[in-house]
Amino acid sequence: MSFLVLLTFKITLLFSVAWFAAALLRRRSAALRHQAWAAAILISLGLPVVQDVTPSWHLPAAVSRAPLQHPVLTAASPAAVRVTALPGSAWRRRGLVWIWWIWGAGAIAMLLRLLLALAQLYRAGSRARPVLADPEFRKAAEMAASLAAPPALRLLGSHSRLAMPLTWGMFRPKILLPANAMEWSGDRLRLVLTHELAHVARHDWILRLCGELACALYWFHPFAWLASRSLRQESERACDDLVLSSGIHPPDYADELVALARTLDKPARAWSAALAMARPSNFERRLLAMLNPSIDRRPASARTRMMTGAISLCLLLSLASMRAPGQGLAGTYSGAVFDPSGAVVPRAGVSLINDTATPPVKETVVTDAAGKFQFTNLSAGQYTLTVTAPGFQTTSISVALPPGLDATRNVTLDLRGPELITRVTAPGAPRAQQALPPTPIRVGGNVQTLRLIQKVEPEYPATAQAAGIDGTVKLEAVVGKDGSVINIRVLSPAVNVDLVRAAVSAVRQWRFAPTLLNGEPVETSTEMSVEFSLQQ
């Protein structure tokens, strides 16, 4: 709910700024006002995407938990987070779901409306025939070159004599003329083509499409419809200014436009996705503007376009970073801890570190008898979840808590044996084999930890002893179900190779009572340290 309310507020503020800018530019050219509305529409489309990746500039909510003085950042495994609705009263949850459904239904209906209009344009273009090769239309190529129109431009003739001149297309723009366009006078043909080619050169159809998408996304907001309509009106007036700047006399242009509007079809289909020259909406204002000699008709310069882009980027980032007070509360973060057999693990330590807070904030809980944990009153952000329990490997998971929603994560721990440390000194005879007493530990779903029952002491290599070399060899071993060492990995490769060989040779002969999980032996990895030291 807070996301929709804040987004609506941002859109209202954005279009209000665009309306204010257009009002300040009322004595300037239509091209500048068109840029203002186009920038607002583009920002409105990028805002829902950018605001999720920009840092917020509001003060974080105060918390009573103690800050983590020395946070330890561990490697995080991918988190499979299940997002659920924010807990609360039943009517609030149902109301939130209904609001999202209503918004989604409206957006889909508007998109289908736009797709239908595009399909009709495609159908009209597929039925039309190219007319650029006709002698009467060859001068259109020269006009296209003078207005920097793309070379892929297609000039089409409609099968209907009442069709309105239309322009659409992104990579291969098209201009559609009625079937009787070949009967027009040279002046009418020239002004119509100049107007439509101005749309192509200015890329107005792409911006018009963005306006329709903004109306689909913010269909509930009247300012979005106002922005789209203003964009369309200023686009037509800017193209009229280009026609008049090409040398056409304003009264002649107005007369031809009125005559053209009388003879052509006047569709009331507001959903048309093309740019129509003689659409009756705002027609009177266009005629008055044509006949007003004091109006500024200059197009927007490259410097003005760059300044508009820079201002738009700053406004986009500012609006995207805006957060409402209290926004970001994620409610609770809960889950359960399991062992590899699927049994729950009670009394496991679970800590949650807010990595986005400054300084990082840590909170620790202990799982209950059912292996469950829960954190409450959390702010949205990036967190690191760490779970520790005797007899298991420490597990760290990176989790992103979205604003206004809760997350649930179940964690399965991997078994790990205790770390064994062996000290070897020289000179001296090797100690006799010894058996360590069993130290069973019951954790969670009935776990009995690995225990050493037969140990062979490593021998100090004579070459290392003569050279005065000592050091600690760290190993990671995998103990099989029968208690034998089936795999050894050296964790300290920088140690003398003779010391490593001696340590590995001895550890391979060790025997263990394997780890029992719910009474069944399982493979377990454990770390060992063999310290070689020389007596002084």
Question: TL;DR?
Answer:
With 536 residues, the chain is of the alpha+beta class. The protein is built from twelve helices and 23 strands.
Task: Describe the protein in words.
- With 536 residues, the protein is α+β, with helices and mostly antiparallel strands.
- The chain folds into three domains: 89-308, no CATH class; 329-412, Sandwich (Immunoglobulin-like); 420-534, TolA/TonB C-terminal domain (2-Layer Sandwich), CATH 3.30.2420.
- 38% of the residues lie in helices and 22% in strands.
- It has twelve helices and 23 strands.
- It has helices spanning 2-24, 30-50, 90-127, 139-146, 186-202, 204-217, 222-245, 250-263, 283-290, 302-321, 462-466, 497-507; strands spanning 82-84, 129-130, 154-157, 166-168, 174-177, 275-276, 329-338, 349-354, 361-366, 372-379, 381-388, 395-401, 406-408, 411-412, 420-426, 447-448, 451-454, 471-479, 485-490, 511-513, 515-517, 520-522, 524-534.
- Strands 1, 7, 10, 13 and 14 form a five-stranded mixed β-sheet that branches. A five-stranded mixed β-sheet has the order 2-3-5-4-6, with helices on both faces.
- A hairpin with a 5-residue loop joins strand 4 and strand 5 (174-177).
- The longest helix has 38 residues, at 90-127.
